[in-house]
Specification:
By secondary structure, this protein is an alpha+beta fold. It is 57% helix and 15% strand. Strands 15, 16, 17, 18, 19, 20, 21, 22, 23 and 24 form a 10-stranded mixed sheet that branches. Strands 4, 5, 6, 7, 8, 9, 10 and 11 form an 8-stranded mixed sheet that branches. Mean pLDDT is 80; it is low at 501-507 and 538-552. One of its GO terms (molecular function) is transmembrane transporter activity.
Amino acid sequence: MIRFALRGLLGRKLRTALTAIGVVLGVALVSGTFVLTDSISSAFDSIFSENYKNTDAAITGKTAFDLSDDGAGRTPPFDQGLLAKVAALPEVGAADGAVAGEAQLIGHDGKAVVFGGAPNLGFSINTERPEFNTLALVKGDWPTSGQVVIDTKTAQAKGFATGDTIGVQARGAVQRMKISGLVEFGSVSSIGGATLAGFDLPTAQQLFDKAGKLDQILLSAKDGTSGKQLVDAVQKVLPTGTQIRSADDQAAEDAKGTSSFLTFFRTFLLVFGGIALFVGSFVIANSLSITIAQRTREFATLRTLGASRRQVLYSVVLEALLTGLVSAIAGLFLGLGIATGLFKIFDAAGLTLPNNGLVFRTRTIVVALIVGVLVTLLASLRPAWRATRVPPIAAVREGAKLPPGKYNRFRPLGAALLAALGVALVVVGLFVNGLATGTLLGLLAFGVLLIFIGIALFSARLVRPLAAASDPIARWSVLVLTILVWPLFSLPYWLVRRGFWGPGSGLSRAGGLVLGAVLNPILLVIVGLMAVRRAISSWRPEWPAEFPGVLSDRPAVGIGGQNSRRDPHRTASTAAALMIGLALVTLVATLGAGIIRPFEDAVDKIFSADYAITAQNNFSPLPPTVAAAVESVPGVDALSSVRGGQGQAFGETIPITGVDDQAPEVVTFDWKSGSQATLGELGADGAVVDADFAKKHGLTTGSELSLETVAGKTLPLRVRGIFQPPAGGSPFGNVTISTEAFDATNPQPLNLYTFVSLQGGVTTANTAVLTQALSTFPNAKALTREQFKKVQSDGIKSLLNVLYVLLALSVLVSLFGIVNTLVLTVFERTRELGMLRAIGLTRRQVKRMIRHESVITALIGAVIGILLGLGLALLLAARLDEISFAVPTGQLALFAVVSVMVGIFAAIWPARRAARLDPLEALQYE
């Protein structure tokens, strides 16, 4: 049976390759994800290790509690005098202090140098302690007072050289500095899109507003002293607010945030790989089912010759195992190309990731092979079991079919129950409070999986009515797309075929484009008139009299529609692959619209000022000096900034914000208790809390609240007001205090946003005045309310576009599924096609028949998928206050058009293959 299985695969190379494509693409994304994230992780590990070369221990500031990764809290610096005290210890061989912060480099165009969302790193350099220096000087000299060294990548990209002057913006206004040299970061080949700016210690302290302060002290142990002895000795002299770790522990601590991000990033990408594999499993199961149905007489002959049911089962499973193994190996190595391509895509988008070479770990190989083989085997079990039910008598019967199983009549009921169980799990996960995160995600994932499987199984009952409804839509949609698209592709093809354009032709590429621009509209009209005439004739009840004995297009299209209804289970299985992809795309689009609308409503409710001052990238916080520059602008009626940070209350770390006494003039709250005036009367001990936080901890107006800050100071506060944040979110934390109280207990405060009202409101003159005031802060910009909503919404839309690209892989897999099904049905109906050709069906009509069947299948998948995606979005919107249910009508229409195009493209090759069949040979096909 092993030899039989191998010969079966080799005898059906094309069908096997098309069947395997879903697994290849899914495994490729899984493999590429692991290679990509492992490569990034390895590069980051090298960076953090390089930071502490020749270092045995590091002293840093210490916060009173652990800061969350998504907060705006800052670790406080410590007194510079600690350096001399530590350096004098007998266990210390060498010690060096440093400060660091964000240093924005300003290009020749006066704009901040930003490569995607990468950080802009600034730090001090001590040339007297080269053993602790992680930078390599490539050209020029190390910086002295008022000078800077920058990385070679920034210099090359922005046209800077040693001796040039460059702008540097940190905590204050931009300063002009001479570039003394160009540097690279140690032995790491790429640090991504980060920019580097190095200064001597006094200059760095002045830029980062840390005079007499340090952020870190690096230590090396004296000969004969172990790292533990060094740490123990230093620990005894450390003041409050500082801590010491070994170099390895400090590197791990620095990498903790990056590791969390990479874990999320890997999981995020693996989810889409799993989706592609899930869709691919439908393709495999459907393809194997069709193939087994076509091989009924083959299996029956084997049974007649003495093969047992078990041997037939093993034969089919072995074919699936070999297909899965070969697919997994192909996908594994294709993943290397995907990882390389992702690096280049991110680089082209300005998001250059750290890269120290591709990392291909054993874990990647093992996971990719196991996943690919298991998915293929699981998808093959039902078709393999069906193959064992082929009776030996079928070997002598023409057109024998597999008998239905004894439980087949319960399939619709079972599918409906499976989908209902999936809905129940999703509802439990969404609406039952107190579930652990892992439990919640597991319920949602398993519930959605059951919904997809149940709908896919039940959809066979929907095929006939949906196919009948899709029939006219398919006819006219193909007609319209043909009129609009076909001339754009046909004319260049015609020019090349006739030798007017291309190698050896007398027409240049530019001339061909000009000729195309002139002739395409003419050709478009001609083709449109021909297509309309053809469509009208195809709808006539009788065949055209001028073509007696020849079938018109209408019967050909009718046969295509009948083919889609001939085997509902096959059509439903083929459409299910597209259904899953479109359901997820619809879910993402609906949630995106449901997020953007509440956000815009929230801005309208809160934003009562004329302008908002934000960073150029729309999300980074800005130093208070930016707001101070705007405050001096003539005509400012009110200006208030929202400080951002973290605190601890009731044993949990929470976001906190600070506002000044002008806040009531520029922001508006929905008050449960208190009033707008409350914001300006917080003083040293007043606080405003949001309604959810108040409800959770039983707070009312007048309640006392203890808030611990990052510096370790506890603020005794009294609740002065409670507000209800809008559904779309707000920039305010759980607890809001006065700017005075915030700045007194939070080092290096930063503003999330600054809101400004000017005399005359939003005018061109006021916008120009604000822009001029911000000219010394190139990293800041002034936005009106509508501009603010747009740039923030654009960030959400960019994320949605990334999701669309990743989900497009599942749509691509479903496209191959339709192609595979059509190719297999062409094999299955070879004799039928030969008969149709023999009685007058033309090649063009054969193509149209196949194309029509493909488009109807795609439309069925689109209808079910879009409705299912809307249903899932409705459940999520009902649970999450931040999301409203908004139907993106335009996008759904676009998805329907894309579905039709998927059907058209999927039918191109099978239709051409069917049209090329020789009628006489087809009639003899066995």
